[in-house]
Amino acid sequence: MTSAPPPLEVSHLTTAFHLKAGTVRSVNDVSFTLHRGEMLGMVGESGSGKSVTGLSILRLIEPPGRIMGGSIRVKGQEITSLPEGAFRRLRGRVVSMIFQDPMTTLNPVLTIGRQFYDVMRAQERISRPDAMERAEEALRQVGIPSPRARLHAYPHQLSGGMRQRVCIAIALISDPEIVIADEPTTALDVTIQAQILSLVQNLARQRSMAMIWVTHDLSVVAGLCDRVAVMYAGRIVEMGRTDDVLNRPLHPYTLGLINSIPAEASPAERLKQIPGGPPSPLQLPTGCAFAPRCERATTACTAVPEEREIGTGHAVRCFHPVGASPL
Amino acid sequence: MTRQATSESVRVEGVTKRFVRRMGLLASTVAHLGGPNRDEVVTAVDNVTLSIPRGSAYGLVGESGCGKSTLGRLAAGLLAPSSGSVSFDGARIDAGATTLSARQLLRVQMVFQNPMASLNPRQRVVDIVSEAAVYHGLIDRKDRVEFAVGLLDEVGLPREALFRLPHQFSGGQRQRIGIARALSVSPDFLICDEPIAALDVSIQAQILNLLLDLRKKRGLTMLFISHDLGVVHYLCDTVGVMYLGRIVETAPTAELFRRPQHPYTQALLAQIPSRSTGRRDYQPIVGEMPSPLAPPKGCHFNPRCPSVMAICREEAPPETTTGTHRSRCWLSSEKERDLQSGEGRYQ
């Protein structure tokens, strides 16, 4: 099989922020491959590095942040070393992003139509009427009623759900092959969240887009993603098929997250909580960063565990994985 | 309606809250001259009645803008209702009552959603958690450090926290401080408005466990406001589902989750993503919550309802009761009528 390179290959990516108080490695030696048409969930709590991973792939890291090492290959092409001008031709057309908060993503003083036009002009030569026609069609595809009239509306005139639909339409306007969605439904209500999930699911299938869905919500991942990567303190601690990771978790942190979901617990019984809080990114414990909160931790955990595969395509960074005999 | 047993402690009776934005000068001058009256009125809470038995937890669920937080503030006495009343053990506690005793008010306390915004950033923890108790003469000023240590211990914070400022804590720890402050005057009725919505998953579980422990230990009666059905399922004995100012369905938690009657509740339950369902296609209900400035006529849910009938667009459905389960939907009232007349083939 002469296979085309996968849409996205990230290997040993490290992104750090140089602050007065010290250096924070928000993304630390992260590697994964995104396959064509695949939906990859990236789960973690605030500060785990999941958003910074997404931003690094779009080269949207600004000083004091910097990609320190590793490689990001988009369709086989290394992008970390590309000049900004060359990468700009890929951004939006090949790799695109949907952000969490549509109110801060959209410019409040420009009409929706104008914002489409600006994005299209950045990518190609297009006349205003042509741009408006395509924008109208894009709005129709994301289920916005009377799209023509909406082109003249300002963001504040739309509801939260409608604004997120607009953001999705703008992100997808140039038919990108890879889309990174950074918690796009977190700010939305349950019924609206279901609408957006359904919309994205359908669009991704129709266009066989590969997507990374960044979220803190394991149950969204369960319904949406083919594979999932769990992040903790800048590292991917577990990765595998969604079904494997959620039903047969290997990393104690993944298990702890699952046990923390109240909807799955018997009512009025104490939840099996993870003790403590995430470590300060400025003072990460040496070795496994989860060790101080982990009930399985031993002296071995003062070293950084290597990633190892247990079961097909199911990898974990842990010396004492759940349900496996200790090393 | 017969009054419930003596165990009932919190009673919200026909409470309505309207917010009015008056016309501007020009518009009101026009109105004086015979023009239209264009005051904008939002009925945030529309004739809500509910009761919470002593020591039990009532979960109020709904999406943003449905009025659940306003109802919480009305129950806490932070807002005066436009009509109706809230009482606790028979004594009025709403801000509209004319005779309120401080003693009575102290029995009701509230935990807020955003612990950063609800704690004074320039106050030290010891003052935050002891100020109210000192002011109301529950403890002596000289005992406040010891008092604060006891409270902090109860919510799982170390003694070292005493002389720190709120910004020196993580979100979960701040919420613990907020809970300690609410407990400082030994309330019997605790209102929690989305207390874990702003927290990370692993920290949410810790705060839920804390609330569960405190409830048992102190025998608290609770009103728990949340958009998350999973949390409510876990923590509450009774659930009320709110939509655009009205409670559309109430039932004991297990009953509501097993047999939701209102189409809105059914839709909400179908859309809780769950780890166990695996990959699936989402089939969302269409549309969005209408503007509370112009709620639809009849049942507020009718523009989005998959089983809408002609009558739903005309008249608001009355409340129907089946056992412990109450709902406001024409489907349930039709069923009931058919059953009574023996025509129904419903189960």
Short recap of the structure:
The complex is a heterodimer of chains A (327) and B (347). Chain A is α/β, with parallel strands linked by helices. Chain A has helices at 50-57, 84-88, 102-105, 112-123, 128-141, 147-150, 160-171, 190-207, 218-224, 242-247, 252-259; strands at residues 8-19, 22-34, 39-43, 65-74, 77-78, 95-98, 178-182, 210-215, 227-232, 235-241, 308-309, 315-316.
Tell me what you see in this structure.
The complex is a heterodimer of chains A (327) and B (347). With 327 residues, chain A is an alpha/beta fold. Chain A has helices at 50-57, 84-88, 102-105, 112-123, 128-141, 147-150, 160-171, 190-207, 218-224, 242-247, 252-259, and strands at residues 8-19, 22-34, 39-43, 65-74, 77-78, 95-98, 178-182, 210-215, 227-232, 235-241, 308-309, 315-316. In chain A, the strands form two sheets. An eight-stranded mixed beta sheet of chain A has the order 6-7-8-3-9-10-12-11, sandwiched between helices. With 347 residues, chain B is an alpha/beta fold. Chain B has a single domain (8-273), classed as P-loop containing nucleotide triphosphate hydrolases (Rossmann fold, 3-Layer(aba) Sandwich). Chain B is built from eleven helices and twelve strands. Chain B is globular. Chains A and B meet through helix 8, helix 9, helix 10 and helix 11 of A and helix 7 and helix 8 of B.
